[in-house]
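Researcher: Let's do a round of design. I'm pasting the structure tokens now; please hold your answer until I've finished.
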């Protein structure tokens, strides 16, 4: 059985491509927009040089912060969450809760569907609470994987990962489900034999 969502109607745009010290001047998150079935989702609104790096590309799509219905956080490290407050009316999803306003709903992220084309799965490894958003698009399945990979080169040996074998298992799971991977701090890439496990 595959983790891939059954639907194939989602569309996405990388709003800003992130970097880490080895590939850029500091640290910035790769922030993405995903849409399906009336849901407007921001994935990992983390550290960027300016909020304009998120809001300006969103405006080019004809959308403002108030149009965002959902924010998905791959995990709770500040470099991936710093700008969640830009979207105060959105539902915020993490590994175990959906937050909105002053309320939260407990639910496990594993297998949770925002729509038939948008599914959350648990992918611990970089941190214990990591999740991935799998988006079924017309071109295939896109995995918004947070820091399972910082960029296409890995790192192969994630210095932050508390459990290396768990990280490898989650990376294998995502590679089995996805045609394209959007990492936490780099450009999208296609998984292959040379993708770090």
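Researcher: That's everything. Go ahead.
Model: Designed sequence:
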């Amino acid at each position: 059985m595959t983790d891939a969502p059954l639907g194939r109607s989602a569309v996405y745009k990388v709003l800003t491509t992130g970097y880490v010290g080895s590939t850029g001047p500091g640290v910035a998150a790769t922030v993405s927009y995903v849409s399906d079935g009336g849901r407007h989702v921001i994935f990992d609104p983390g550290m960027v040089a300016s909020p304009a790096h998120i809001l300006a590309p969103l405006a080019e799509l004809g959308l403002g912060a108030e149009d965002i219905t959902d924010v998905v956080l791959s995990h709770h490290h500040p470099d991936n969450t710093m700008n969640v407050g830009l979207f105060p009316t959105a539902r915020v999803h993490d590994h175990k809760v959906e937050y909105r306003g002053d309320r939260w709903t407990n639910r496990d992220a594993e297998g949770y569907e925002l729509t038939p084309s948008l599914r959350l799965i648990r992918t611990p490894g970089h941190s214990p609470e990591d999740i991935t958003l799998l988006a079924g698009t017309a071109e295939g399945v896109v995995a918004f994987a947070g820091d399972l990979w910082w960029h296409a080169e890995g790192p192969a040996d994630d210095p932050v990962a508390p459990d290396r074998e768990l990280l490898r298992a989650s990376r294998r799971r995502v590679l089995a489900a996805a045609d394209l991977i959007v990492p936490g701090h780099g450009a999208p890439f296609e998984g292959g034999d040379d993708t770090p496990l």
